[in-house]
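Entry for the shared binder. Reason: the reviewer on the internal report wants the predicted structure included alongside the sequence.
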Amino acid sequence: MANQSRTVEIQHKAHIWFARRVAEELAGELGFDRVAVNEIGLAVTELATNLVKHHAENGRIISSVVDKKDRKGIIIMAVDSGPGIPDVSLALEDGHSTCGTMGTGLGAVNRLMDEFEVESGTMEMARVHPCEVGTRITCRKWRPRQTTTTANSASLINFSVMSRPMAGEKCCGDAYFLKHYENVYFVALLDGLGHGEQACIAAQTAVGFIRDNYKKSMQFIFEGVHRVCKATRGVAMSAFRIDLDNKIFYYAGIGNIVTRVFHSPSRITPVNLNGTLGLILKKVRVFEYSWQGGTVVAYTDGISNKWKLNDFPELESKPPAATASFLLKRLGRNTDDATIIVGK
């Protein structure tokens, strides 16, 4: 497919229909059925309508193709550089509105699409222009797997991320990096020391290094982040690599970020060592566990750690986006930045 990414600037109502048509055409080219094409169109309509109603700065809808070994799908991104979303979990509730509308937009998009992520104050642009405010909503819809799906591809994991800055801050000091390659998942979650602009700079500095080195050893990655963050406040960091072919879960962590794995036949209880990358790093220890599947939840200290998954039995059947949204709303603290990653 020659053109795999299509961008529509959203400034007024006429652009909503055009963004929907562009996304539906791309979905049709990818082979989605009529029902799925309509669902994608509805999701784009909701996202674009939000941009218009809130008079978003530099608002745009980006429709792109994602093509992996075993499946294809479409990514829809709604991006702006406006004031951000003050309460992500509240914005996902049906009936919530900040501009007198029905307020069903983001909740509807969450249900229509397979994967859903919201970042407010943590956009990629912060790497170039630290602390530039804005919101990026990313959602994906996948074509059904082929009947020849292998055992390994059937075990693929869907991730969703929810992130918000501390109350009163425009910029989030948390950051994350997620990559799927060669039947391997690499995930890193970072928390810049403190909050605000300097925390944001520290976290984005770390992400910049990880982006260029995510295939290297965990030891190399942690030592590299420690080195590049010496001119910053420093960061806490947890990272894991799930090797689906060899069924191994590799984990390392420095500082107060929590990672849990639920419903795995071989219990996984990752341990973080004390320290702050960029300031104090005594050693890096990489743990290896047998991976038999399960639910992975990683979160920064803006999320309370006093909970168990069986406290919320209704989450077992929920997709990652719904689980992340629920936990952020129920367990998030307004006194710090908060980011949660859920993989199922």
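Summary line for the report: The chain has two domains: 5-142, 158-343.
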